[in-house]
Model the fold of this input.
Amino acid sequence: MWIPEGARYKYTGDIGDKRYTGQRLTYEEMFAVQDDAWLGKWFDTRKYGLDDNDIADLQRSGANERILRYADVLLMYAECCLETDDPTTALQYINKVRERANNRLINRSEADAHLFYAQTPRSLPTAEEVITASPTLGRVVDGNGTIVYPGVEINSVRRILKHEYTVELFMEG
Done:
């Protein structure tokens, strides 16, 4: 995803008074000239797309939008398990989704080269490992160091489930 500390975007064009010709930019570099009020509100995904702004988005992929994906079914079942007070089974189904994603990175490129899970197959942590690490995801800080959005600490089964829905099904309606 194109988010703070996410994938890097290959950009050709002008940002402010600087000209870029295919350099990989971080989220912060892409939006450096935006008003700070917009920080943390502009996100995008690499799903079905390439890594640059040379081709219109609608021309980027031959993949059709799915009405219902297997990953969605697994996550809905995990949610049902949580609602019936069975977090152990919920984690098993969240991990099934993560395991499928762990085996393959689509469109692997320089945009992902710095991300831990893009280094080698099988390096995506399990849901339990994420909960144990309790990372804060989505934190946005402006140029003055002011926290625009504090992010969310992934420290429970419910929060890892919500996170998994977000990363797995983003931009799918």
About this structure: The radius of gyration is 18 Å. The beta strands are 9-15, 18-25, 136-137, 140-141, 147-149, 152-153.
